[in-house]
Amino acid sequence: xxxxxxxxxxxxxxxxxxxxxxxxxxxxxxxxxxxxxxxxxxxxxxxxxxxxxxxxxxxxxxxxxxxxxxxxxxxxxxxxxxxxxxxxxxxxxxxxxxxxxxxxxxxxxxxxxxxxxxxxxxxxxxxxxxxxxxxxxxxxxxxxxxxxxxxxxxxxxxxxx
Length: 161
Known about the structure:
Elements: E1 3-9, E2 15-20, E3 30-34, H1 35-40, E4 47-49, H2 50-115, H3 138-160
Protein name: GRF-type domain-containing protein
Domain GRF-type: 8-53
GO molecular function: zinc ion binding
């Protein structure tokens, strides 16, 4: 028998050796054999035809490849579904934000219209010093009251000191 070393290992953790068969039926057919099995001529140690092992390995790799492809497809489906759900949530959020911005823009425009003092020069009288405003906004009334109160406090301080 001829031999060459192999990187495979048997169950006994021994290096497997490849041999060429010397029988008529399998002349020069390559096989693996555990070193202990060769020395003891025991059938309990690994013996495997290399061509059959290659077919078995290809079958195992093919099976693993099929499983990986199924896993990738499952991952794609799950990821696509999650991204679609997130996309729907983002679209809902964007619509809600647009609605809020629109509502806030309208409220701001109303506030600007209601709180702007419009002095009509034709109604202003220099003799009585009154100005006519076209606004009755509660916010404006509070602002005017705060200014008036601040002015009175300032005048009171100036008079008493």
